[in-house]
Design a protein that fits this description.
The chain is α+β, with helices and mostly antiparallel strands and 864 residues long. 35% of the residues lie in helices and 24% in strands. The strands form 11 sheets. Strands 29-30-31-32-33-34 form a 6-stranded antiparallel beta sheet, with no helix packed on it. A 5-stranded parallel beta sheet has the order 2-5-6-1-7, covered by helices on one side. It has a 4-stranded antiparallel beta sheet with strand order 17-18-19-20, with no helix packed on it.
Amino acid sequence: MSTEFIENPFVGPRTFSKQDRRFFFGREREARDLLALVLSERLVLFYAQSGAGKSSLINTRLLPRLVEEEGFVAFPVGRVSGQLPPDFKGDVANIFSFNLMLSLDSSDLPPEHFANLTLPEFFSRLTTADGQTYIYDPAAEPFEPSAETDEPPHILIIDQFEEIINTNLDRWSERNEFFQQLEDAMAADQFLWVVLTLREDYLAALRPYERIMLNNMRGRYYMQRMGARAARQAIEQPAQLGGRPFAEGVAQSLVDNLRQIKTQAGDEAQLGQFIEPVQLQVVCYPLWQNLAERPRQPITSEDVAQLGDVNTALAQFYEQALEAVLQETAVSEINLRNWFDHELITEAETRGTVYQGDTETAGMPNELVRLLANRFLLRAEIRAGGAWYELVHDRFVEPILEANRAWREEQAPLVRAAIAWDEAARPEELLIVGGPLTAAKQTVTAAQAEPLVAAFLAACDKADQALQEKEAQRQRELQLERERADEQARRVKTTRRMLALSLVLLVLAIGAAVFARRQQNIAIANEARAIAQTTLANAQSLQRGNQLQLSTLLAIVSLNNDGLAGAEEILRQNISRLPLIEAASQEWNDPLQDVVYSPNGEQIIIANRDQGLAVVYGTNDYQEIKRFRIPSAVVTALAIDPTSTILATNANSRRNNSYAALLFDIAAEGGVLSRNNVTETRATLEHQDAVLDMVFAADGSLIATASADQSACVWEVATGNKQQCFAVDDIVTTVLFSTDDSQLLTGGRGGHLFDVATGEELMAFPHDSYLLSAAFSPDETQIATAGTDQMVKLWDANSGELLFSAAHGGWVNRVAFSADGRWLATASNDGRVRLWDMANDFQEKQLSHEAAVISIVFSQDGRW
């Protein structure tokens, strides 16, 4: 027996590579038959069911024997799937030919070079110096083989060829041309052999293309699924090589266990005919790992019994890989599991592919992706255009989805609540406060406080604080009422004592004269009270007659004269009955998200977040003029054009995966719409994620939108056509036109200034976190930015130079210039308003508040 140390002779749930060939067993007959067919036919279709081991057979048996025993030269294994690389300029003539060329070529040529190249042109200049790496050389002389040419045959294997059917579905019309190019390449080079491997269920889809290809693609080899005898060889012989053989009968028992099937009656399990090779690897790989610390003794039935079914083993393999990589990275576990669910697995629950950029792969750090690949959970497909990653096998899809669902169910209530809140577009009604919040916090450790949970906690704490402040205010009001009542009681008691003492003294001292004066004072007091009561009665009468303004004035007089409790109640009732407040409060229990005045001063528009409404009221009588309804959408932002005729609202629906800004004609005929009607829009301005802000240009011809899809777009108001889109590297929270509408300022994680006409980025304004406010100076020579990094910064609008910066003790919510451009003001959560005199070396003044300052504005004359 060999004494060579082998760490693990089982490769796990992945394809065998050429380096693994000494551990590949159970397919010797299939390897011989396929080799014989390839030698006799220049074009072979090699097909089998998914997971049967086609790729492993090619890597470990077919290719090595063709090269080492038959004198073939092998191209790299090719693929026809894939999307255009990011930042690819233009389009390609044939997406399938393009992908195949990229998978074979290792040159430094840009992908654009292959955009219009055909396969015969490509193969005629494909060169190699070592028989391993192939480079397309445009300057090389085209290869023209002849009968006299002493040239070895070349074998091209295109793996997973079903991808020509199930990928790039919108480019189906290019399939015919691909087959024609492949046929032309084989006709031009008599030394070119081709093997196409595909899943059995896609074989029929190739029939329309048979007539194009050599011999009508009649050279075919079907590999059946692995039988029990072959399966036993596939696990017994690697274990023997590794120095830890299976005990007598254990391998057969394991194979029988794995091939159990349920009958239709479902009464008991029967032994099936076939076994999936991936099942063997996913069971034997962790089995061997579990025994790594034990002396190399035979594997017993007790060792095997510790493993569960295949799905369980796959799920355990996945969980162990995640646990290992999470310990080495700072990635959120929630985000990582969501990445598997949404990026690596499609909505149809099949494997997806993701492109690897310079630093990230579909939003995940490349280092984490490398660690997952090292754990055999992912595999890379290297092409000239870059690397693409996917799950190692389709068999992983169901166990991963189930494992992620189980993980979410097992999380603490706070984590589950955070996920539900995020998936529902973060509504306030899903926040928890008070006792439930305190209890939920106790179930979460510091390690579980991931970004999503932290954001949820921050929102809950804010809502809880607001609730506590409201309750505290109510308690203060009750305390004031009690103190007022106690004070009045003390005054009455004191007055009575004083009066009694005064009466005694007056009777003893001056008698009737003092008594007369006292009677006069009482009469004056009674008269004042009578006047106050009469005034209060008149205020109540005017209130019943709906004369609210005069009723309010009389109630104030009554309150000042005598402090009657009824006067205060009338004031509360009158405020609540102001037409606009009463109309909104009677209809909506949900929060009013945004309120704006039209530029002409004739309308007020109110946005209701959760009912998907924008309602227009007149400012003269506060009566409803028109309502705009957007079902199933969240409305949080409004904007009105300078002519006061066009209304813009955002309309975000995570449930429907719909995100847009909508334009409505305020002045369109039709009057008040039914509450159940859907308003006809003037235009729909679509984004890929939530629209967060909108602003009209000064002349009203353009509108800009800010979105969480990491873009800001400029649209023509008249047509709704997109004029420009500006991409940034994070969500865009705010947009702002310059006075002449020639430039657009976007805010997100820092600011960016763009030329509206050309789309060129003019400059960037870095911040360490998200912008909350930005402003142009009146002469547009300077730009001020502020945000959640607690910083305010002043920039030169022409050069982008940082002129000034200062730090607050909290988020900076608003920044503003005075009308003459002399003063720069900021408002912050630290309770301070800070004023900087830009004409005098930024000398500072401060105004303090007891709570966060949300907004500031200068008067037009600059005095306030």
